[in-house]
Amino acid sequence: MAAAKSLRPTLAAFRVRCGYRARVFEVIPCVDVQGGKAVRLSEGDPDRETVYYPVPLDAARHWCDLGATTLHLVDLDAALGRGDNREALREIAQQLNVRTEVGGGVRSREIADAWLEVVDRVVLGTVVLDNPGLVSELLEMYGPDRVVVTVDAKDGYVAVRGWKEITNVSATELAQRMTDVGVRELIYTDIGRDGTLQGVDEAPVARMRATFPHRLVAGGGVATDADLDLYERLGLDGAIVGRALYEGTIRYPRTP
Ligand code: AMZ
Fold it and tell me: Which of 36, 44, 150, 211 is most buried (CB neighbours < 10 A)?
């Protein structure tokens, strides 16, 4: 007993030295808010919305009651540059005891600072291409656990400004750049599949996995438990899931 106990610190130190950490695949419910309501869009088109909860806090509470450990919150109006849903999202972060990350319109130091007073992590999209210096600045200020970059891609190319603008930067190129500047968590979204329940397209996810060596979470098209199994087999750390959860087409919580 005593011998086993004394081994523990050595084992822990060994794991830290080797960068080992137990990989637990996490299913992260997303609460996307547009016009004050929790919705899902199809392929990010604001005109193709399904309202799931008129009050976003109710959606968030629902997933927490089922055991969610993290919620992915998105301010769609802010991402689209036509208003914001800050109050509804702040309320979720303040009232519920769950880890929260927020994306959509986090494009300045001031906005990032304000969010990081109430949420655990910010998710940066458009600003990563508009002002890459801000990514480094936030990483330095808050550390890589609180700054997540999202690579949202259509046919392999990064989309910005509410996915209205497709750039000429490839998803893998951006992932490589993010590795180089010290980002340690990336979200990859397949826009063409997002909100469609079509199933996951394996090849682009595998390419992202091969490019980005740190924590990688993906979303877009998840429809069944087999899609989550596929992500896990590809070595992803988690999935951001919307419509499949709201429609009940996957098991949640996901038990082994
Ligand atoms: O559905 C959309 N049209 C959409 C969407 N879900 N547009 C942007 N977003 C999300 C991204 C990310 O979480 O997935 O907004 C965030 C990025 O916003 P920004 O303002 O940093 O580009």
Answer: 150
Q: How many residues belong to the chain?
A: 256
- Of 31, 109, 37, the closest CA to residue 71 belongs to 31
What pLDDT, in 10s, does the model give residues 115-165? Answer: 999 999 999 999 999 999 999 999 999 999 999 999 999 999 999 999 999
- Distance from the CA of 103 to the center of ligand 1, in angstroms? 6
Closest C-alpha residue for ligand 1 atom 13? 103
Catalytic option among 75, 77, 152, 237: 152
Contacts of 93 (CB under 8 A, 6+ apart): 73, 100, 102, 118, 119
Residue identified by tokens 């090849």 is 203
Return the residue matching tokens 């390419």. Answer: 207
User: Which fold does the domain 24-247 belong to in CATH?
Assistant: TIM Barrel (3.20.20)
152 catalytically annotated = yes
CA 177 vs CA 4, 62, 166, 213, 221: distances in Å = 44, 37, 18, 12, 26
Q: Is 227 a catalytic residue?
A: no
Whether 74 and 32 have beta carbons less than 8 Å apart is answered as: yes
